[in-house]
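Memo to structure team: turn this sequence into structure tokens by end of day. - J.P.
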Amino acid sequence: MSTEQAVDEVDIRERIDALVDAVRAKDLAAVRTMFAPNLVSFDIEPPLRHLGAGAKLQNWTKVFTVYAELDYEVRDLTVLVNGDLAVAYAVNRLSGTLQSGDRTGYWVRWTACFRKLDGAWLIAHDQISVPTDFATGRSVLDLEP
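Reply from structure team:
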């Protein structure tokens, strides 16, 4: 790995740490700084594809509205850098207390493709998924890494 790749990997990891902090704080303005304007997101909720950073931010707005208290964890993060493109993947946990007072939490699989635009690493594509039980057709939300 070149020195530049190592520096870029550290930068991306720091950006992901900042995203985690922003989600925990329910800070939409800070979350916004993570995404390229023309982001394509295969998010966990319908539709199949969300186009543009605005659509992704609407999803985070929904999450921030539903949760009274929110925690976010990234585990087993891998970052691969090649030039102005990078891929990061991990299993992430969204958990907390809903506005109803109920506690909830589940792990998702997360992959993000970063592009270096004007010197900043931004997420140009992400995919969030959960495993499916094919026999029932239902998502499996109780798995642990």
